[in-house]
Amino acid sequence: MSVENGMKSYMCVICGFIYEEEKGRPEEGIPPGTRWEDVPENWKCPDCAAIKADFEMIEI
Which residue, 13, 18, 30, 53, has fewest beta-carbon neighbours within 10 Å? Predict the structure, then answer.
């Protein structure tokens, strides 16, 4: 992840899955560049089905 573009990453505290704003989740209808706050509230971790509240911003 490059810091210059201001994109962040968020990690699921339950399973360690990482959502990267830069990459999005196109296979789930979330285009690359989608900010975390713009990810739908009902979105769940694709690996363990945790909710958005179970994710924390991380530095990579």
Answer: 53
Q: What are phi and psi of 19, to 5 degrees?
A: -95, 125
Q: What average pLDDT does this structure show over 22-31? A: 97
How is the beta sheet containing 9-12 ordered, strand by strand? Answer: 18-20, 9-12, 55-58
pTM (predicted TM-score): 0.88
In contact, 29 and 42? CB cutoff 8 Å:
no
Listed in order, strand segments (DSSP E) in 1-60 are 9-12, 18-20, 55-58
